[in-house]
Structures are given as C-alpha cells and as structure tokens.
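G., before I forget:
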Amino acid sequence: MKEKPEQHALCARAEDLVTYLYGEASEKEAADFKRHMEECRSCKSELAAFSHVREDVVEWRNLSLPSFESSTAPVLEPAVTERKRSALAAIREFFSLAPMWMRAATAFAAIAICALVVFTVMHFSEPRTIVQVAPQVPAKPQGGEIAKQREEAASPKEKEVKETQQVAVATTAPSKSSAETVKVNNAQPRVKSRRLAAAPSTVAQRSTEKPDKAKASKEAREQLAELVQTSKDDDGLPRLSDLFEDSNDSN
Amino acid sequence: METTSDEQMVERALSGDADAFGVIVRRWERRIYALAFGMLGREEDARDATQETFLAAFRNLRGFRGEAKVSSWLHRIAINQCITRQRRARVRAETGLEDEAERDAGVFTIAAHESPARRAEARERTEAVRRAVSALPTELRQVIVMKEFEEMTFQEIAQALELPLSTVKSRLYTALKQLRMRLGTHAAGAGR
C-alpha cells in the first residue's frame, strides 16, 4: 500500500532522523530517537521509506562501479607482483604480517624441531661411546657398590634373569676371573638395556686385549648373548644388539 | 610514503618532486571517480571528469593555500567539473547535437546468471534510480552522492563543501524525500 509523505505533518526532528538513518548518532541520541519514533508516526514512516531509497541507490552504485574497479591498473599491479614472488619473500611477508604470538610460536616450533633432530642423532650415536667406557666399570672399586645400587633399583624381572645367569655361571665357570667377567656383563643391562646391546662386542674386544680376562669362557659369552636376547624380549622393543649380532658372530 | 599526508605531498610536488602528485592521484582517483559517476550517471563522463579534475588540480597546485584539506579541495574541483560538463551536455542536447536518450543511457553490470525477467527488472530499477538522482538539484545531488557513493561522514561532507553540519543534514533529508517521491511507486511496489 502506497504511503504518501504529504499525509504526515513534518516533524522537527528531520536532522535527527537522517543522523539515525546513517548510523552516526551516538548511543544516547539513538535511544532518544527510538523513543521518539514510538510516538511519531511521521518519523517512523519516513525512516522505513528512506531505508528503501538508500537500498535502491546503493544497488545502483554496486551495479555501476564494479566495471570501474576491475579496469583500474592499481588493482592489477599487486596481483602480478604477487605471482612473481619468491618463497623467501613469502616467508618474509608472513613474518612481517603475522602477529607477534604467531611469530614466537613459529620460532619455538623451529627450535623444538632442531632440538629433536639433534637429540635423535645423539641418541643413536650414543652406544659407540658407551662401548668404549663400559669395560672400565669393573676395574673401579666402586663398581661393586654401583652394581649393588643398580641391583636394588632393578625390576624384579631383571633380578630374576640375573639370578638365573649367576647360577649358570657358577656351575660352568667357578674361577674368579670368569665370575668377575659375568658380573661385569650382568651389570650392563642395569645401566641401560640399549647399552647392554653393545656389550657382546665389548667383551670380545676386551678378551683379546687383557690376558686374564681373555680367559672368560665361551659359556660366559653365550650366557651374555642369552641375556641380551632375554632383555630384548622383555619389552618387545627392537635393540641395537640386532645390529651387533653379526659382528659378534664374526668375532 | 603512504603515511605522508596529502598536504605534505602537495608541498613536495610544489618543490619539484615529480612523483608526489602521482601519489595524490592514486589515493583519490577512485573516490573522485565515484563522485563523478554519481553526479553524471555515465561511466565515460565520469572518467573524463575525473581526469579533468586532477589536471585542473595539478595546474592550480600553487593556488592550494593549505587552509582546507586536499581532499576537500579535490572534491570541490570535481563537483565544479561535473557541473560544467552537465551544463555543456544540456546545451548540446538543446541544440540537437546529442540524442537525449543516448546521453541518459546508463551502463549497468547485471549478473549474467540472473533470469531475463530479473535482469530486466534490475535494469529498470537502476535506470529509474539513476534518473531520479540525476533529476535532483546539484546541491542535493552532491550530498547524496558523497554519502552513498563515497560513504563520507556528515562532518567530511561539511568540510568538503564548506557548509554547516546542519545544512548538510537538511539537504540530505530533502534529497531523500525527493527521491522517495520519485521512486515511491517502486519502493511501495517492491513490498519490502
């Protein structure tokens, strides 16, 4: 139903109506004009009609101006430049545009990854170092004490394995030197299961270097191999001993 | 470069910096074009008026005294250019040098995926709006175009036109009222 503007008496708040219509009224002014509209039929009607007029004008603008925007050079230039941009430039732009927390998080992630890589590399190269150090452990007087402490800390399962091995060694090699060798070798799994994995080659090397320890019986070595095998099966995880098995066999 | 004010850029241009005025052009060309398009209603006219506006500004660069903002100064030049062009066009139409219907024909980009009926309706409506805006007196048309096409605030319009704020609001109210009367049938018929 068409509403003729002439039917309503003009309201003195025409400027307030325009200010409210374009959203430039303050909160207080807007609330005040809303209250006014509840009573003023003229303003309420004009506000609705002017909103429709605005929609029409804006639609005309939107239909007309896109052709201008798409045909101007300044819009196209950045797009062309962006296509030629290198990866380095993209990273630079990311760091220049990203918020501070994102930059910090990225830097932290990069450091964490580097640290993880370094740790992994060191971790896998660690057994070789220990192989060289391990033979000296029984030579020290404190070795027994350390072994005792480790024995106490060892899990019941490891203890059981050790006891079984000691019994086996006592029956096959009662000599002091062989018993000592076994004790040394038994100490290895308590240090670390992966260190133990390297022990066979260590024992083999040491038996050729030192005459008294070279008397270690073949059974002791077999026991050690069994121990390695037992340790590997304990937790079902792969061991470096698999890698050393070949070298042990060759020795 | 972008943080330098327009007024500083004018000073640079006056001191011989050849690129300084180019920066001003790039900053304001879109809005001046929008203003010209709203005032003239034709793309071709709007382009010409925009070009002439910046040409006139460059020629009169030394006349810029810095009392007003560069944007206000450019808007005034643009409005004068639009008024001059309309006057010339009216004379040509009266002397039969240009077909009135052809001159008034607007260019609208209506989405191709719309149905023919919808496109025809949209074309008819936008044409009606263009004619209604073009029929407004210049002082009313410039405020409605500055508000709807450039989305300027009342304060900015008042500064650009060197008018009191209340005059800008009352002119806008009058412009909307006249447009409502001209488009009244459509607005009510749309049932919105």
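Residues 100-133 of chain A form the longest helix (34 residues). Chain A touches chain B through 35 residues (CB under 8 Å).

More on Monday.
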